[in-house]
Inverse folding.
């Protein structure tokens, strides 16, 4: 027996089944897979249903429908609805015939025409319109209005017809038993009041007199002092000091005969 024959064959002896559990060849695996696939197809064919496939009806789904030109809501979306004439606008509703303008030729000249009105009547219509639209006149007040002021003069009491006596100070609280009649002085000017300060005792007698403000006429001042000393007031419990104001009234002096001019 040769050396080549002594080596073991991978598949054992030719034509004999290898002893023990040897590995499968690729051909045997492919044949097993093909048998399993064929058995699976046969089972599907035998056990599978043979009813015809019918599609299910579609319900409760949104539907899409194209609107035609007769829809009013679709016509409102037209941007030229109120800008351009349409067959359904108010002109078509009242069936107003629309005049078709003829396009002039390329070389077209306007026919001559004369004005129907004369030159004097061109502004008559405008003048009549302005007569019915008159506006109230507005005067600009550039200067403030004048404020008229009235002269308010103090109302002076009417001058007394005779000379008067006014007692002031604490002496005014003691009354005279009888009014004193004062005469007017013949003088050519106005005399100032003769103011005499007097001190009266409790019995009402005047025992002190002082001329505080002369009148400018000595005879009137002396007469004021004499009258002040001769006055008698109502009795009181204490001495009283006051002022006597003699308001003299003057009268024009009598006219004298002027000397003859030699």
């Amino acid at each position: 027996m040769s050396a080549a024959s002594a080596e073991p064959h991978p598949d054992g002896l030719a034509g004999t089944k290898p002893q023990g559990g040897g590995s499968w060849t690729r051909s045997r695996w492919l044949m097993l897979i093909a048998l399993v696939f064929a058995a699976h197809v046969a089972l599907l064919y035998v056990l599978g249903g043979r009813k015809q496939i019918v599609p299910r009806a579609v319900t409760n789904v949104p539907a899409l429908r194209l609107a035609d030109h007769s829809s009013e809501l679709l016509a409102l979306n037209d941007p030229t609805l109120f800008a351009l004439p349409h067959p359904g606008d108010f002109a078509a509703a009242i069936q107003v015939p629309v005049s078709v303008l003829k396009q002039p030729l390329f070389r077209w000249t306007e026919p001559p025409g004369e004005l129907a009105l004369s030159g004097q009547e061109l502004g008559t219509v405008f003048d009549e319109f302005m007569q019915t639209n008159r506006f109230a006149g507005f005067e600009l007040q550039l200067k403030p209005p004048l404020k008229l002021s009235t002269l308010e003069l103090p109302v002076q009491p009417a001058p007394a017809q005779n000379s008067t006596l006014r007692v002031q100070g604490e002496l005014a609280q003691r009354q005279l038993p009888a009014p004193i009649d004062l005469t007017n002085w013949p003088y050519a000017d106005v005399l100032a009041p003769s103011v005499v300060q007097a001190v009266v005792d409790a019995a009402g007698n005047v025992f002190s007199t002082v001329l505080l403000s002369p009148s400018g006429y000595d005879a009137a001042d002396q007469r004021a002092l004499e009258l002040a000393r001769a006055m008698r007031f109502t009795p009181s419990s204490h001495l009283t000091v006051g002022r006597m104001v003699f308001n003299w009234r003057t009268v024009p002096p009598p006219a004298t005969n002027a000397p003859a001019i030699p």
In short: The chain has a mean pLDDT of 76. The beta strands are 164-169, 185-186, 194-200, 206-213, 240-247, 250-251. The longest helix spans residues 26-47.
